Amino acid sequence: MTGASGQTVAAVDADHPDGHEHPEDDPTVVDLLVPADGVPPLVTDREALQDGATRLAGGTGPVAVDAERASGYRYSARAYLVQLRREGAGTILVDPIACGGDLTVLDEALRGVEWVLHAASQDLACLAEVGMRPDLLFDTELAGRLVGYPRVGLGPLTEHLLGVRLQKGHGAADWSRRPLPAEWLTYAALDVELLEELRDAVAADLERQGKTAWAEQEFEAVRLAPPPPPRVEPWRRTSGLHKVRRPGSLAVVRELWESRDALASSRDIAPGRLLPDAAIVDAALREPAHRDDLVAMPVFRGRAQRRLADRWWSAIERARGLARERWPATA
Q1: Distance from the Cα of residue 265 to its chain's centroid
Q2: Where are stretches of biased composition, namely Basic and acidic residues (predicted)?
């Protein structure tokens, strides 16, 4: 693989490239079902947020950080929960929505402190949106790739290096839901429970392999990476688009996709929950002659879709009204 700084990460084929045994071969692996100190109360107001910031500022060493989004449920990629843990401060769970979307007080408390994240590139943008930007970064997932571990997910790495199996099951949940269920908060707290210990274990292997400086360059490249540019013709990522071959039908896909995207953005709903990609492709292929033909099609005949039928039909009519030179090119 090629690292963020442009260097190549060599693939490692050995069974145990780092000298560790795999936990699936080790019957001593234990399940961690609850945090050692219990699940802390959820921070939902400015007073509790300031108290958490004070505790974090008084802690020592790096701070473990994680964020939960509502991918697949919401259009935005905002954080709906932020988890932090630091030696001497314990674990803090913050509801950024209830706190007004501004967590800069936490950012100020952690100036100059190393932040430990797993797959940091997934969370840095949503953390920046609430005013949190690390000065120093250690990414345990990226570090695991540099070491050459066969599996670098948080769960497998924690089992492999620490002999502890984390609770699973809520990573893809709708974290915009309120109130958040107690079992979800337990899962969220466990995500940062051992992250500092995991950081130390991976860092030791980086040092043994002489890759510490390389890893630091990679972490800094991730920390400073600009947001990705907007996709060119993002509608071409519609699942099943390969079935649509005529330029006029591609215009229908584009208009339906753009209409759906605008509505999804305004309602902060994942686009696929408004209208599945398969329905867009189906409408382009079947070429309904009238609005009634559209609402007779699968998916479009549902109650929710019938309420949006005028919107979808207008998109189809716009596509059909385009001059040929404005049709999308075939791939």
Answers
A1: 18
A2: 13-25
- Tokens for 187, please give them: 């899962």
Contact 3, 221 (CB under 8 A): yes
Reading the block at residue 74, the tokens are 């919401």
Mean pLDDT of 106-120: 98
Q: State the pTM of this model.
A: 0.87
CA distance 99 to 206: 38
Domains along the chain with CATH numbers:
23-224 (3.30.420.10), 234-326 (1.10.150.80)
Q: Tell me the pairing of strands 90-94 and 81-87.
A: antiparallel
* Residue 118 and residue 145 in contact, taking contact as beta carbons nearer than 8 Å: no
Residue 272 identity: G
Residue owning tokens 């549902």: 302
CA nearest to 67, candidates 7, 27, 118, 33:
118
Spatial contact of 74 and 269, defined as CB atoms under 8 Å apart: yes
